[in-house]
Amino acid sequence: MRNRVTQLFNIEYPIIQAGMIWCSGWKLATAVSNAGGLGLIGSGSMYPDVLREHIQKAKAATKRPFGVNVPLLYPDIDKHMNIILEEGVNVVFTSAGNPKTWTKLLKEKGIIVVHVISSVKFAVKSQEAGVDAVVAEGFEAGGHNGAEETTTMCLVPMVRDAVTIPLLAAGGIGSGRSMLAAMSLGADGVQVGTRFAASVESSLHENFKQKIREAGEGDTKLTLKQIVPVRLIKNKFYEQVQAAEERGASVEELKELLGRGRAKRGMFEGDLDEGELEIGQIAASIKDIKPASEILKDIWNEFLKVKSDICSKDF
User: Fold this and answer.
1) Whole-structure pTM value
2) Which ranges constitute the DSSP H helices of 72-200?
3) What is the per-residue pLDDT for 185?
């Protein structure tokens, strides 16, 4: 397929693997890129020297385009951006912050810049900041989420009507059917997180991967809304957060409960009780762990089949 997304990134399929913390290292990113999509290294859980190592390993493992996702709230953001420039990364996805802060500099260096948003307001601001594309991420997505709680099906067409730049849909997308639905709503491509989190190359702990396979409908919940809304699998830690919120805990109390390293503890180290288990609603539909290349081809082949089936129907 040749469209605005495949042309922008010089890739075969308009499928981007989300840059997720504790999950998206160089192995996952290059597996997706080598299969014809765009893989992203998730820098949010990496110290600067670790990010450099992953970029260098990715450059050695693929000749195809890949990128880095950078949460703009990261404390060492300057160091991360300097490493990205020094290592010659060509694609940067930014999130969780003001796109005006870094877009101009990155664009001046010839880097393709994409910003992740969860509202029409910030989609417009991102276009005004000069980004090349936006990711419209709906309420269904895992990890940090928008305070508006707008679903992907509502958000994508509203963003499409508001901006002219290429649009990627995210949140609840992990199959060819959902990809076709997103593109029917106006997206030029999709960003897939949870389905790639449950891949062989994902750096999630095996305990967490198994937990994703066991997840059912309603097993994830958006919480910590007083700090930064985040979607988690319900576990002991989640119950502690819920109890604190129900008794009216202050922001300071919630931050103390969250502490440091909760996400690493759950996602990377496999503590399913006390760890923060960030994942999307679509986890309920995932029943296997596959190589990333198979996941991408499954999504694409189902997309083509469902598209053909719909076109052949007599409505």
Assistant:
1) 0.94
2) 77-86, 103-108, 120-129, 152-162, 176-184, 194-197
3) 97
